[in-house]
Design brief:
The protein has 234 residues and is mainly α. The chain has one domain. Helix 1 runs parallel beside helix 7, helix 1 packs antiparallel against helix 8 and helix 4 packs antiparallel against helix 5. The longest helix is centred in the middle third of the chain and has 25 residues.
């Protein structure tokens, strides 16, 4: 849970910095930092993928998981969920603005919460933390969220800070659930699960670098498929 608390802290710090220096944060600087983070994300993914011992499990997990995710359109559904929430908040904002109310904090909260919590890095990172006490990915995400929170706070205002408790509950919940399941997974199954998740992280790294935009969330079922295949392919 330490990495989760660090992530929450970076959201608060980033949001505070963004509010204090709205006109001083250059896009060129943030872009350069994000490229560095993207490269490090690929390195982390490759390092984790090496924990796998059975290539067949990885191949089948990615193929089956990707097929399931594509059929369910997980990536698209997440995107539409975010879009629907944004549109709903936008309509609420217009109505409230007409009534003389200020709802910018609500918009900022929803936008920041989706950015920080809806994504494969959040899920895989929280699973790695809970299953294997591997916090590297969540620490990387924390740096990214630090920058993102500053950018969002600079443009949307103090409502970004309200997303911090949501990050704690969402990521902490996944981490704790993974910790409960960990004793029921042997080293073999845990290694293959981490391997599949790490390959997904490599894809995410390519997205961050802008090399190619993959529908990364569609492959999330592979994380569940991998340990199940370990029961069959021992």
């Amino acid at each position: 849970m330490l990495a989760v608390f660090v992530n929450v802290l970076t959201v608060l710090i980033g949001g505070t910095v963004g509010l204090a220096a709205r006109k001083l944060i250059a896009k060129k600087l943030s872009d350069a930092i994000m490229i560095g983070i993207g490269a490090c994300t690929i390195y982390i993914g490759i390092s984790g993928a090496l924990q796998g011992k059975n290539t067949l499990v990885l191949v089948l997990a990615m193929v089956i998981g990707g097929a399931i995710g594509t059929a369910l359109d997980i990536d698209g559904r997440l995107g539409r969920l975010g879009g629907a929430l944004e549109r709903g908040i936008s309509r609420l904002r217009k109505k409230s603005a007409a009534a003389g109310e200020k709802t910018d904090p609500i918009q900022a909260f929803v936008t920041a919460s989706l950015l920080f919590c809806v994504g494969s890095m959040t899920i895989v990172g929280s699973l790695n933390a809970g299953l294997n006490h591997d916090y590297e990915l969540l620490y990387t995400k924390s740096v990214m969220d630090l920058i993102s929170a500053a950018m969002l706070a600079a443009s949307l205002g103090p409502g970004v800070l309200l997303s911090a408790p949501f990050v704690l509950v969402f990521q902490g919940g996944i981490c704790l659930l993974a910790g409960v399941l960990a004793p029921y997974l042997g080293d073999y199954a845990r290694g293959e699960l981490i391997c599949a998740g790490s390959v997904i992280i490599v894809l995410l790294g390519f997205n961050l670098l802008g090399i190619k935009q993959f529908k990364v969330a569609d492959y999330l079922p592979a994380i569940l498929i991998a340990p199940l295949l370990c029961l069959v392919l021992k």
